[in-house]
Amino acid sequence: MLKTFQTAYLLKNTYRVNGIIYSIKQIPLLRRVLPDSLYRIRGFKILGNILSVGWEVVSTFLGKFLYLLLLVCGLGELFDKAPQWQVFLHIFFVLTIIGAYMNTYLFNPTRDKYYAISLMRMNARTYMLSYYIYAMLRVVVGFLPFTLLFGRMSGVPLWICLLLPLLVAGGKLVCVWIYLFRYEKTGRNPDENKLNKWDWILAAVLLAAAYGLPYLGIVIPWQAIVALMVLAIAGGVCSVKKVARFTFYRELCQMMLAEKKSGLDPRVTSQKLVQDASRKKISTDTSITSKKKGFDYFNELFIKRHRRILWNSARRVTIGALVVVAVGVGACLLNAQVARATNESLMRLLPVFLFFMYALNRGTTFTQALFINCDHSMLTYGFYKKPDTILKLFWIRLREITKINLAPAVVIGLGLSILLYVSGGTEAPVNYVVLPVSILAMSVLFSVHYLTLYYLLQPYTAETELKSGTYKILSWVTYLFCYALMQVRMSSLVFGAAMIAFSLLYCAVAGVLVYKYAGRTFRLRN
Amino acid sequence: MEFIIENLSKKFGTKEVLKQIDFTFESGNIYGLLGRNGAGKTTLFNCVNRDLKADSGSFFIGENGTRRPTVPEDIGYVLSTPTVPEFLTAREFLKFFVEINEKSIRELRPLDEYFEMMNIVPEDRDRLLKDYSHGMKNKMQMLINIIASPNILLLDEPLTSLDVVVAEEMKQLLRRQKDGRVIIFSTHIMELALDLCDKIVILNHGELEVVDKENLDNGEFKDKIIQALREEEHA
Fold first, then answer.
1. What is each CA distance from A151 to A84, A162, A226, B225, in whole angstroms?
2. From the list A293, A302, A380, which residue is nearest B87 (CB)?
3. Is residue B83 within 8 angstroms of chain A, CB to CB?
4. B71/chain A closest Cα distance in angstroms
5. Does any domain span residue A251?
6. Same domain, yes or no, for A353 and A464?
7. What is the pLDDT of residue B60?
8. Tell me: the pLDDT tens digits for B72-118?
9. Distance CA A164, CA A441 (A)
10. Any A CB within 8 A of B61 CB
11. Please, are residues A139 and A170 in contact by the beta-carbon 8 Å criterion?
12. To the nearest whole angstrom, how far is the Cα of A218 from the nearest Cα of chain B?
């Protein structure tokens, strides 16, 4: 048993260390300096080992510390209708029940188990048992300091604090026993991540009981908790025998780990998720057709079949904006003070709207859908990569994305003018024009911005992973730019005029850049 | 017609995957490109297709003693994992393709004829491509590349995951398509290469080299190829 544990631990440690070295190698500047032979170098292995052991220690304690600090003590403080120490016990006890069946450790199909049992063909029973003993020890050792610390702080008697970690372990053991029993009877996969409807309902009820009852001033009497605790610990001791004597660990593990066989690489799995999700967004409505020809035909089908992701949120924003404007107009008409405040804000707060328009823009959703569901495959065809094809589609797409973002922009822009009017008007009527036009300009600006970035940098790889560092940096710069301008306080008239000019200039420059470079830059990345 | 590669080099880090390759492919031939795992076959294709920027090198089409650089339309690339626009039906994809390439397609035919050529049955023609199987997507990708009739057709392990019937259909199709163009077919399956290809080229240690069949029978030829791949390794 000890040998198995040692082997398993070394195995886990090895890939953890390699994982650490791999992450070190992903840091942009270091990547160039560090050789591939890094994994062989002793010093690095030692460094990795230190980090790995450190992580083991931290992960034993940190989670439990935070759990008790935030979920038990922190939320417990909110309820003052019952004695603090009883609230502590109540919440801890009920949450422990949820944890007992949702987080057994044994039935979590982790990578460790897959590597050791499925790939390395270690003895499933000894592996699972040694793994489990270690997990239970970690539970007890990890909880003890904090049940003592937080328990004593809340005024829980010392002897109960000492028993609490055993309650956690006992509860988990009892649940493991139930899972094993059920497996023997029904053959149901004990994977604890595959909970059914009832498990979730139970969890919700328990969660409500954990916090709802103390809120009402009700807690489970501490004597009952102690009795149940003793029962759970006794049950835990009994189930040790069952767990130790269970003989079907191999077949149970095969079943539990079967899905790990494909897609263990988290990157591949997450990419597949993204791709599947994107594919699902394609409308299967057979009545969708197009009467257009060529590129317009191609584009129209794309837009129509992606209506759900492209138009729905624009529609929601439009409706939301309509409601806000209507409420604003109503408030201004009813209350002179609100009207005055609104009027003042409108004359000064246009920069804030730049940030709104940034946040509301659907540019990235559009380019992502374009890539994953369309360009990703089309860019492998020579005819699609001809510079004039690329440009033609760019203009068509620019038109589309601008259209999508236009409806919310028109509502917001006109809404501002109307609000300005009903809130008392302005001395310079030109404001009525500058406000809506600058909002429109912002909307167009962001549409152009995202599409241009997409065409000039084409940040995705053939596996639909976002890989361009430049793209990420520019996205940040965009955010910072909008955020910084939000802090600016200047007259809306000046800002609006400047924004219109800037947008025009930006679009012109973007157009030129796309015209000159997109033919070369719009490519699949490898 | 000839397809000429001149001085093509590509490095990843310090690893030289393609080393100043100079090679001329002649039209009317199917070239079987063989190489060990990781030898750089896909890299070579990606460079030719300009999906990957080579460190150096140029590609030309040579005809009647004159030559010009290749343009995207010269090259068709069929990948092992087929890529088709999933939001279109097969017919819509074909219609779009035909419409924007009207001028360059030789002997344009009704769409259904193309589907028949690929044995894509009528009930599948109006289904979204996202619901197509791997093999069906592959057929569509091949079909588009065949209609485009590029001067150079690159095929990266295209038949490996197809069922035997479809694979056989594809082979027939490729044989019919080889006149007037260069087909380069990369594969790990020696039997397939010997069965389908007119010439065998190996890529090893970053260099391209023809393995001459002379008058060997298939068994001897196979040994010679394996020998060549091995020797290169020790070179």
1. 10, 9, 14, 75
2. A302
3. yes
4. 8
5. yes
6. yes
7. 95
8. 888 988 888 888 999 999 999 999 999 988 888 878 889 999 999 88
9. 62
10. no
11. no
12. 56
State which amino acid sits at residue B40. Answer: G
CB contact under 8 A, A382 and B73: yes
DSSP assigned state of B132: S
- Put simply, the answer to whether B71 touches A381 (Cβ < 8 Å) is no
List the strands of the sheet with B199-204, edge to edge.
B75-78, B152-156, B182-186, B29-34, B199-204, B207-211
Q: Please answer whether residues B86 and B116 qualify as being in contact, where contact means their C-beta atoms are separated by less than 8 angstroms.
A: no
Which residues have C-beta within 8 Å of that of residue A342, sequence separation ≥ 6?
A328, A331, A332, A419, A423
Which residues of chain A have a CB within 8 Å of the CB of B71?
Answer: 386
Spatial CB neighbours of A206, under 8 Å, sequence gap ≥ 6: A94, A95, A97, A98
What does the radius of gyration of chain B's CA atoms come to, in whole angstroms?
18
More confident residue, A166 or A286: A166
Contact A374, A302 (CB under 8 A): yes
CA distance A272 to A266: 10
Percent of chain A with pLDDT over 90: 35
**Among A435, A437, A429, which Cα is nearest to A417's?**
A435
Q: Please, which residues have CB within 8 angstroms of residue A8's CB and are 6 or more apart in sequence?
A: A112, A116, A122, A127, A130, A131
ipTM of the complex: 0.81
Query: Is there a domain that residue A269 lies in?
Result: no
Residue B100 sits at the chain A interface (C-beta within 8 Å): yes
Is pLDDT larger for residue A21 or for residue B46?
B46
Residues B182, A283: Cα–Cα separation, whole Å = 39
Number of domains in chain A: 2
A253, A386: one domain: no
Domain of residue A412 covers: 294-521
- The fold for domain B2-83+151-234 equals Rossmann fold (3.40.50)
Tokens of B49: 């297709």
B34 strand-pairing partners: B202
